[in-house]
Structure formats: C-alpha cells, structure tokens
Write a structure and sequence with these properties.
Layout (H helix, E strand, L loop, with lengths): L3 H18 L6 E6 L2 E8 L5 H14 L2 H4 L9 E8 L7 E6 L3 H14 L15 H5 L4 H12 L4 E10 L9 E10 L5 H14 L5 E10 L7 E6 L3 H10 L3 H12 L4 E8 L2 E8 L12 H15 L6 E6 L9 E6 L12 H6 L3 H12 L3 H7 L3 E7 L2 E8 L5 H15 L6 E8 L7 E6 L21 H4 L15 H29 L19 H29 L23 H20 L35 H10 L8 H17 L5 E5 L1 H6 L2 H10 L7 E5 L5 H11 L8 E6 L11 H7 L2 H12 L3 H6 L1 H34 L6 H13 L2 H12 L10 H4 L17 H7 L19 H16 L3 E5 L9 H17 L5 E5 L11 E3 L2 E2 L1 H12 L10
Parallel strand pairs: 2-3, 6-7, 10-11, 14-15, 17-18, 17-19, 19-20, 20-21
Antiparallel strand pairs: 1-2, 3-4, 5-6, 7-8, 9-10, 11-12, 13-14, 15-16, 22-23
Helix pairs in contact: 2-4, 8-9, 9-10, 19-20, 22-34, 23-32
Length: about 1000
C-alpha cells in the first residue's frame, strides 16, 4: 500500500511530465523501480515519439530529478519513456534514456526530427555508448548503471562508492575497494544475487581494485541485511599464479591467448616432468590449413615459459601439426628454468608433502576449483589455511557458501594423503565471502588424542565439568562442622539443589540429543550421515511400529462400529459401464446446461481476463511473470485417462509394471478396434514426445500439405529409453498393428547407457514382459531372439534372478498372511478405503471442487481445464499442458539442477545397451520398410548449460553417423526456441503451444516421407 509521501511524490512527477510534454495529467503514469524511472504517455492518438522525447529531454536537462523524489529514494540512472494510444494494451514505442548522456540523446532526437517527421524507424545522430563500455573504465557511476540494468528488474536500487585500501605485503601499490550498496523493499536472498553480480563485476576486468563488497539493505532499515565479498583479481593474474605452480590447464590457457593473434590453438599435457605442447590451426573447418609456423611458435612459447618458470616442469616438447594429420609436421624441445634451479625442481605435490604452506594452499584451491572457467568468472572458492599447534585450520569461502558435503571430505582426504609433518588433524570451515563467522565446520584427527579436556578451535581451554579430574579432593576435612550457622547450611542446601537441577537438566538434554529426535536450537540443522546409527534406526522403527499398531486398532474399532453386521452378509455388485454407453437424464442435462450457462456468464462479465497488459490500473508496469500474449494451439480434446484406466483393468494382457504403458496400450488397442487399421503415423518416445507432438495439430498441418485424413497417435511414455521404444515396437505391437511411419521424438537422455535404465528394468520384471518373450518363442522367432543382444541379455538376467524373485514372492506372501492374522483392519481394508474416501469428499472444500469438476466435464474446448489437462491424456495419447515456463517463478518451487548433478546424464555414454537396442530397432524397421524419423526435441537456454551442451554435441555426432542408414532420418530442432520460454512447461518439456509449433514444423519438413492416403 502506498503511503501519503509516495503518492505526493508520484503526483509531483506526473505534473512535471505533463507540463513538459503538454499531455494531460490523466494520460501520464509514473513508476519507480530500483534506479529506473518509467514514464507512460498516452492520449486519444499515440503521442509523437520524437516530439515527446525532445520536450521531455529538454525538461530533464533543466531539472534535477532527485529533487522531485524524496531523500530516501536512490539516484535515478535511466528513464524509460513509452507511448501508446488510449484503450490499447501494448505501447507503440519505447525509448531508453541514459541520464549521463543527455547531450547525445538530444542530438539523436534532433537529428531524427530533421530527417524524418513521420516517425522514421532508422534515426541517425550520435552514437550512444553502452554502460558496459563506460563501466570498464572504472567509473563508479558507470559501474552502478551497468549493474542496475540487471538488478532494477528485481526491484533493487544500486549505488557504488570507492574507498582506498592500505597497501598489503604482496602489493606495494595503492589499491581500492569497491563498495556496492543495494537497497530494495525486501531482503533478497544472497545466493540469488551473489554469482550473477560476481560474474558481471569480474567481466569488467577492472584494474586497481582489490575486491568489492556488496551491502544489501532494506529500505528504511539502519543496518545492512548482509554483506558479500567479491574477489576482483584479474583473470590473467589468477592464470599466471596457477601456471607458476605448474598447472597444465592454466599454462595452456595463457599460451592460447598469447598465440590467438596468429590463429594458433594450444593443447598441453604433462608426463612426469616434461610438458607436451601441441600447436594446431585455431579455425580450420575444411582441415586444409598448414601447420603453424615453427619459428614463431617456439619463440613465443619459450619466452612465456621462461617468464612463468613453472614449478616442477623441467622440459617442454613442442609439436606443430595440421588439423587432420595424426603425425606432427615438426617437433622441438625446450629446457625450462626448473632444470637449472634446484628450488624449482620439486613439484607442488612434493613441496606440499614436505610441509610447504604455499604449495598446500595451491593444491587446496585447485582441488576445490576443478572448473577453471567458473573460477575465472566468479572468483571460485578461496582457501585460507592456518596452522596452529598440530592442527591445520582451513577456511573456505565463496560468493555462495560452499557445501559441506562437497568440500569437507575432499579436503580431509587430500591432507591425509599429503601426510604433512607435524599435522595430526584438520579442521575445515565454510562461509559465504564477507561473513566473519563460519556457517559450518568439520574436523578429523589422524591419530587418537588422549585428552581430559575437549579442544576448542583454534585455542584450548579447560571446561568446568573436568575440574574434579584435574584438582585432587581434600579428604582430611571433618564431617561435623559445629561452627556453621543456620543461614550457611540453608545457602549450602540451596546451592546443592541448584547444582542438582543443573546436572539433571544437562543429563536429560544429553539423553534427548542422543536419540537424534531433538537438536539444539542454536546449532545449524545440517544432516550428518556419520551420526546416524543402529540406535536411531531402532528408535524410529519402534515408534513407527507402535504408530502402525495403534492406527490398525483404531481403524478396526471404527469399522466394527460402522458395520456391525458380518462382512459376508454385505454383498455389493458394481457393474462399470463405458463412457460411450452412459446416458444422461433430462434433469441432469438441464442442470448441466445451467452450469454451462453459469460459466459462460462468468466469462462475459470479465471479457479481458484472458488478456494481459503491460500496464495495470494500480501502478504502471505489470509483473514479468504474467503471460502477455496469446499463443496458437490446437483445441483441447476430450480426456481419456478414466477410459484408459478402465480399459487397462479389463484387458486380458498382463501388466508391464508401468501404469502409463498399460493405459497407452489400451488406448491404442481401442483405436485399432474402432478404425480397423493402424494409424498412419505413430509418435513414440519419452515425456518429451508425450507433451511435445500434438497428433491433431500434425494431422491438420499435413492436410494443408495435401496429405488428407492422416491418422496420428502419440505413444509417449514417461522415462522411455531406446530399450523401451525397441521393446514396444518389436515385442508389444503385432505386425498388423505397426504404422507406416514412426516418429521418435526425444533427446540424448534416451541413449545414455551409463545410467541405470529404471523404466526398462521395471518392465523387464513384469508378467507382460515374460509373456512377450514366451510369445516370441512360440511364434518361432527364437533365432531372432538370440541374435538380439538386448532381449537375450534381459532374458538371461531374468533367468538368473528368477530364484531371488520367487523367494521374494514367497516371503511377501507369508508376511501378508501373518499380518492378516494379527491385524484388526486388514480384512476390511476395502471398506476402510471407501469410508475414508466418503469422509474426504464430505469436506466443504473437496465437495465444492468435486461439483465444479463434474460440472465442467462437458464444457467446450475453449474452457480452460488446467488442473485436468496437466494430468490427463486425450484419446490421441497426447498430454496437453497449458502452463508456460517462467524461470523466476519456476525456480521458486523447483531446484535448478545443473548438468553435473542431473541423473539423466550420469556417466553419459552412447555405447552400450541403449545403442544395442537402437541398432536392433533400425534393422527391424528396415526389414519392414517402415521409415524411422528421430526428432531431437527443443530445449531451453536454462537447460542447455555447458555440461549438457557437451553431451548434446557427442549425441549429435552419434546421430549423424547413424543417419547414413537407409530408412532412418535424423532431424535436429533442439536449439530452435532456446529463448522462447512461452513454448515450454519446464526447462526441457514443451507445452501445448510448443507442441503445436513443432507439429507444424514437422508437417512442413520435406525430408520426412509422410504416407500418402
């Protein structure tokens, strides 16, 4: 809610803009966001762009905007001016004005007015310098404007100041520290701003600055909310520091930058104490460029290595070769300073083993910063070692506090392997850069310590509880003390009672903490797997068993009171009917019409509810996560999940341990029974196919291309891999049920043989899988079965696991019988389920939701059914999702998982069981003369991080090799819409709007041999 002062400030700004431009105050709207001032000008006709800007810029030149705002508001760095016609949703034009370049903007506007009086789209005039270019020069105001471009979108205002620093021992020249003050109406999470700000600051490569301190403060508060330190050491200095210690990756990066002007790329490897350097042409797509010049490369590399003098590297072998040649065109050898200087001869590892602190420091930093690019961008994890006594204390800090799980064990293992003389234990700490106190700590001793007094880090002191062990007691004191007064006795009793209460409280607290059910209030709640043991398992197991027995007894009592008659006398017969046979009574039809009319009237009362505007009525601009444009998509069709469940339950085919696969097979069989022929096109794959290709849209688009009445079915299965697709096509579907064209829509994840294929493992353990194998043997295809490594290996695995599976089933059956004999509610579990469901549906909220859902079943396709569509497929097997991917909103509910920690890419490799299944499917489709089209589905830029891009390139090469096979076509559209988030429901899955666009693109693809009717 706006305060009176805010309303007065906004009113004064509106009046000032109205006087400057001549536009009525009714047509001017103002909003302040961070360091940005947004001005909207509207009228019965859209205000003329350059005339409005000319008047406004002249007024800004003569007015101090900070005077119009209150003292609490930070400085305004840029003004964004919009113009639109009244009644329209979006502005017709927008112009950004940098207040530090007003003269250039005025020159640009005047030039545009002279050259084009009718709104020219190509204005000439002065060149506007970007804030980034000005910020690289080190000016504080320019740096503030540069950061404001990103932070103003989050509602964070920025101010930058420079303070001199005292010269350090390592640097005699004067350095400065950058102070960045961030003010906002809320407290932003440090992890949200830390790495983006660090990357933007380090990208500037500022000279003369030691580091930067980011101060976040809420508007109106007097104390900062949090501090963050960013290391501004230039990347070149970091590279030279690591190269000095003999880091091969840093040396290769420095040599590549040195020879980049000669178009020479450098790769390096280390064998013993010799560095092997390979020089190749940096850009040679045709592989015809000659080998790099020998004299030029040797001279530059020799000079650079002499300057670096890498530790422990005594010689270097330099190779020059062409891109396509395996053998080098020339070889030469260089002698490095370490061969002549004994102090540089030992490697960093040897020095660290001997106790050299700088060498230990380098090894720790290299261990915790394996990604060199990430360290150069953000500053990485900084390590501060300190030896006190026989303990090595190591502080690790970064813009985002390093994870204890990822850092502590690595550091302890390295120090243990080094066996540093005099170090008998290690203590590791982690904190966010800028904090004084650590967020967590971890310690291990390499030898057993015999101490009566527990240690304190980093100094030691005796605790009061051990005083009795250190001080001998006096035994010659008399038992009777006639000289004691009554008051002294009472005081003594009071102290004893107080000590007894304190001791008892401490013992109870210790007992509760040992159960692991309680924790101290001040201690960080971090899970430590080493502290879990058998006692904790017994405590939780006992509590769970008691709770289960109590719940079973209560449910038995409830059923006994609810149904006093014997269960054998109560017989209920339920005859399910298919949706096609269900009839609606006239009364229910009338009610349905009333409900439909109610929803129609609701939509009429709010005609613009589905539309969104950039500007809202209360303020000025709308939130960024609001959908601002309507997208094309095929109409929503009737949902088929309920029908699929019913058909799967009635099917004579055994289950495949995958409910979705059973339901898709049931829908496919129903389609075959209805049409009498298989569909012309079958879409198959994982959830990316299930959500990413719309059969209705594809059929409609093909009709416009001359392929009339093409029947398309989507057979997508969540988690389907190459093994699953191969099994469905070759083992589940009959030859008469195969389509004319198979479109496999998926990505590289389906071909990863390095991870465990959970989906196929569940199918392979099912009764349906066994029946498919027996059916193949009975049909006389045993030879083909044995030739197929994927099926034969699965069959052998099933045979070897059969005894274990049988014993498991016997144990499970025995356990069920034992529980049924003891339990009071096991025999009545169906009645309990029905009773709970009735009680749940009787709740007001649930009953209202039930009525709304039942009343909206027969609404038109134009009615939004988001809740149902998110979980239900239609009769074409397609899952339409209307939700749009908004990164800011999505990552508030879901963690952002990078490629390093994505299980789908774990131990990524194409060769293996998935490749074997793919080869078998290729051979099968070629024999049947069925074209197989693989479509690499679109992904977002958020999903395609460097790790996943590397795997995608490997997968691309594999697919291009496979494209040489006949009847196989590979189409890659993975990077088609990396920035169009409105086409996605999450970072790697399309929504119905994206599926509509993909379907149209596939229909217009001339490389796909669509079947002619």
């Amino acid at each position: 809610m706006k305060t009176a002062s805010q309303l007065d400030r906004q009113k004064s700004l509106v009046q000032w803009v109205s006087q400057a431009t001549g536009i009525s105050t009714v047509g001017v709207k103002i909003r302040l966001r961070g360091n940005d001032l947004h001005i909207l000008c509207e009228g019965t006709e859209c205000p003329r762009r350059w005339r409005t800007l000319s008047d406004l810029l002249q007024a800004i030149q003569q007015t101090d905007l900070d005077v119009l705002t209150n003292s609490e508001q930070t400085s305004i760095y840029q003004v964004l001016v919009y113009g639109r016609k009244k009644g329209e949703i979006r502005p017709q034009w927008c112009h950004r004005v940098y207040l530090n370049q007003l003269d250039r903007h005025l020159e640009q506007v005047n030039q545009a007015l002279l050259e084009d009086k009718k709104k020219s789209q190509a204005p000439g005039g002065a060149l506007i310098i970007s804030n980034e270019s000005l910020a690289k020069q080190g000016h504080p105001d320019a740096i503030a404007r540069y950061l404001s471009e990103t932070l103003s979108r989050l509602g964070v205002a920025v101010q930058v100041k420079v303070k001199p620093q005292q010269p350090t021992q390592t640097s005699s020249c004067e350095e400065h520290r950058l102070w960045i003050f961030c003010q906002s109406g809320y407290s932003p999470d440090p992890s949200l701003l830390a790495e983006p700000i660090a990357q933007k600051l380090r990208y500037l490569k500022l000279n003369g600055y030691q580091d930067a301190v980011i101060v976040s403060q809420v508007n109106g508060e007097t104390t900062p909310d949090w501090l963050l330190r960013v290391d501004l050491t230039p990347p070149e200095v970091m590279l030279k520091e690591w190269a000095r210690w003999g880091d091969v990756q840093a040396i290769a990066r420095l040599l590549t930058e040195l020879l980049s002007e000669f178009k020479v790329a450098v790769q390096a490897s280390l064998q013993e104490s010799t560095l092997h350097i390979f020089c190749t042409p940096s850009s040679d797509p045709l592989e015809i460029a000659p080998a790099p010049d020998k004299h030029l490369c040797l001279q530059a590399i020799a000079e650079q290595l002499d300057i670096i003098a890498p530790q422990g590297i005594k010689a270097a072998t330099v190779y020059g070769q062409k891109t396509a040649d395996q053998q080098p065109a020339w070889i030469d050898w260089l002698t490095l300073p370490a061969a002549q200087n004994p102090a540089q001869s030992p490697s960093a590892l040897e020095l660290a083993t001997a106790g050299d602190e700088p060498a230990v420091h380098f090894l720790l930093e290299r261990l915790l910063n394996p990604d060199l690019d990430w360290r150069l961008k953000t500053g990485g994890i900084r390590v501060v070692p300190l030896v006190k006594g026989d303990l090595l204390h190591i502080m690790c800090d970064a813009p985002v506090c390093p994870s204890r799980k990822k850092v502590a064990n690595k550091v302890v293992q390295l120090i243990r392997q080094l066996k540093i003389p005099g170090v008998l234990g290690v203590r590791v700490y982690g904190r966010r850069a800028g904090n004084k106190e650590p967020a967590w700590h971890h310690g291990e001793d390499f030898v057993r310590r015999q101490r009566l007094v527990p240690e304190a880090t980093p100094e030691f002191a005796a605790a009061a509880i051990y005083i009795k062990d250190l001080v001998p007691s006096q035994t010659n004191e008399p038992i009777l003390r006639p000289d004691l007064t009554t008051e002294e006795v009472q005081t003594f009793i009071t102290e004893v009672a107080r000590d007894w209460i304190t001791t008892t409280t401490a013992k109870v607290k210790k007992l509760l903490l040992q159960t692991q059910l309680f924790t101290e209030i001040d201690q960080p709640t971090e899970y430590n797997p080493e502290a879990q043991g058998i006692k904790v398992a017994l405590v939780w197991g006992t509590l769970g068993l008691l709770l289960t027995m109590q719940t079973d007894w209560v449910l038995g009592q409830i059923i006994t009171r609810t149904n006093p008659s014997p269960p054998s006398q109560v017989v209920s017969t339920v005859t399910p009917s298919s949706p096609a046979n269900q009839k609606t009574s006239p009364k229910s039809g009338a009610n349905q019409n009333q409900r439909t009319a109610f929803f129609a009237n609701t939509n009429k009362t709010k005609p613009n509810q589905g539309k969104s505007s950039v500007f809202n009525a209360s303020g000025f601009t709308q939130n960024e996560d609001t959908e601002t444009e309507s997208l094309e998509a095929a109409p929503l069709k009737e949902k088929a999940t309920a029908t699929a469940i019913l058909l799967a339950a009635r099917s004579q085919m055994p289950s495949f341990n995958a409910r979705q696969l059973d339901e898709q097979i049931a829908l496919y069989k129903q389609r075959l029974a209805k049409t009498g022929t298989p569909p012309h096109v079958l879409i198959i794959g994982s959830s990316r196919a299930l959500r990413g290709v719309d059969p209705a849209a594809l059929s409609q688009a093909l009709a416009t291309q001359g392929y009339a009445k093409i029947d398309v079915f989507n057979f997508g299965i969540n988690g389907a891999t190459a093994q699953v697709v191969d099994f469905i096509i070759r083992r589940v579907l009959e030859p008469s049920e195969l389509p004319k064209v198979i479109v496999w829509a998926d990505g590289s994840r389906a071909f990863n043989s390095g991870r465990k294929d959970i989906t196929f493992a569940a199918i392979a353990a099912s009764a349906g899988y066994k029946q498919a194998l027996q059916k193949a043997i009975a049909a006389g295809t045993t030879d083909e079965l044995l030739k197929d490594p994927a099926i034969s290996s699965s069959e052998e695995k099933a045979k070897t696991e059969k005894p274990e599976l049988s014993s498991y089933q016997l144990a499970n059956q025995w356990l069920n019988q034992a529980v049924a004999a003891v339990s009071a509610s096991y025999s009545n579990r169906d009645q309990i389920k029905e009773l709970l469901q009735k009680q749940l549906n009787s709740l007001p909220l649930m009953s209202d939701r039930t009525h709304v859902s039942t009343s909206s079943i027969k609404l038109s396709n134009d009615a939004p059914e988001e809740e149902t569509s998110q979980q239900s497929v239609d009769f074409d097997g397609f899952l339409p999702l209307s939700i749009r991917f908004h990164p800011a909103r999505y990552y508030q509910k879901h963690p952002k998982v990078t490629g390093n920690y994505d299980n789908d890419y774990q131990s990524f490799k194409v060769e293996g069981e998935q490749d074997t299944a793919f080869q078998a499917l290729l051979q099968f489709t070629q024999t049947r003369k069925i074209p197989l089209v693989f479509v690499n589905m679109p992904l977002t830029a958020d999903y395609l991080d460097p790790v996943r891009q590397q795997y995608e390139q490997e997968f691309q090469q594999y697919m291009l090799q496979m494209a040489n096979n006949p009847n196989f076509i590979y189409r890659d559209i993975s990077k088609l819409w990396t920035k169009v988030n409105d086409y996605f429901s999450d970072p790697s899955h399309l929504n119905r709007f994206g599926a509509y666009e993909v379907s149209k693109k596939l229909a217009h693809d001339p490389m796909i041999p669509w079947p002619a009717k």
